[in-house]
Amino acid sequence: MNRREFAKLLGLGATALSGIPLGITRATGQTRGGTLNTIIQPEPPILVTAINQQQPTLTVGGKLYESLLRYDFDLKPIPGLAKSWEVSPDGLTYTFKLFPNITFHDGKPLTSEDVIFTMTKVLMETHARGRVTFARIAKAEAPDPLTVIFTLKSPFAPFLTSLDCTTAPILPKHIYEGTDYRKNPANAQAIGCGPFKLKEWVKGSHIHFVRHEGYHRPGEPYLDEIIYRAIPDGASRTVAVEQGKVQLTQWGDIEFFEVPRLSKLPNYEVSTKGYEFFAPHQWIELNNRIKPMDDKRFRQAVMHAIDRKAMLQRIYFGLGKLATGPISSKTRFYDKNVKTYDYSVDKAKALLDEMGLKPGPDGKRVTLRYLISPVSEANTRAAEFLRQSLGRVGIDLQLQTTDIAGWAQKFADWDYDMTGNLVYQFGDPALGVARTYITSNIKKGILFSNTAGYSNPEVDRLFEEAAVATSDDKRQELYSQVQRILVEDVPVVWTFEQDYPNFIDKRLKNVLSTAIGVHETFGAVSFG
Predict the structure, then answer these.
(1) Fewer beta carbons below 10 Å: N end or C end of the chain?
(2) What is the pLDDT of residue 9?
């Protein structure tokens, strides 16, 4: 179906925005039925969340793929594909009972074999975060089609927190076994077991999901369909909200400078809930393999050279708080008692002088490439802010632009000097933090791994001991130690604990129902 046919199907007539037909279709007065129009920006490179873990992929893919568990706003596990679970007294064996009658979008049943295949085969190869967690599995068993038993090599406190749909999305074994997972032709069909299935994807226009009639939860999904609109222009996204042409925005769909004004619109509720599990942590990534970034004094100088308070207010309009180190204050085992870096051009210059990195006749000490993350216009403004800030101390940034696929490839392949990055914490440092800093996760070609190339044996030891410790007091002690070391070494330049506004049409119900918010399945979402 082309774009013209798509517009006719929705009965949108002349209603268009930047060439993209928008509108709302729903069964008035009914809780079942209707079309949810929303935005996806930027457009994801793929829909299979096991293959790609960028934010747009996870937001869209959460409707297609599910995992064993979900999490409430207090990060306590609740049923997903598993209706119940038990943990042995020694903390080594986890037994999950699946709901009956779960089917994939191609009609084939989902069984315990699919769960084991995904977690011990696929994700070990394709998932930067999941591979670290699931490498701890010593044995996986499927005694019957609805029972999964995992035996760990040693206790791992956050194992039950690592089974959401962004970390462990279950793929069909009958389609992926024995194939190149990244190149499997079925990736274009995105066959999962979620409440919605892919009808079509018109690149540059929209992604169209329709109800999966074989979904296992009675009565779900309530919506007939979800349409994700690709609207790359920030002004056009703003107009879509102003005119009520979309019923939901998420993450950075609305540019930060527009949030105060649009928050006054009467037909939308605005909420920053639904990001508790992710606790988005923003930083500037520095390639530690490249001089002068292999010297911690240079990295410390960058910390001093940036007025992060001004950056938060001017670029992100106060939606967030300053980060103090690798662990977010929203995440367990945060410790605020670490070294701080105040904004000081003089301290930055002194550190660079100490390195012998003297300015030339033009005032430049070094020229580095800065790869702009193309997720939002704010990132472009932030890159310009950084260029000006670092220029004051003689660090010349050459800004580079690309699309999201190009950014991901260059970043994952270490073809960058500096770039912006935003990574999720996933409720526990063993899940979302350690992966960025441990030596074993330096894996070329895998996004959101240890792409900076930082390596410190003591940091590796502390993260591992903290992951297997069974006492929260002991874990806190170990994580406090690792935070102090990392804040001294500055492998990346932490900027903000980012907040994001969700604009939600007041007619919509159950949009933010768990700690993963808009990444949820949306099976329970309805108009009234």
Answers:
(1) N
(2) 38
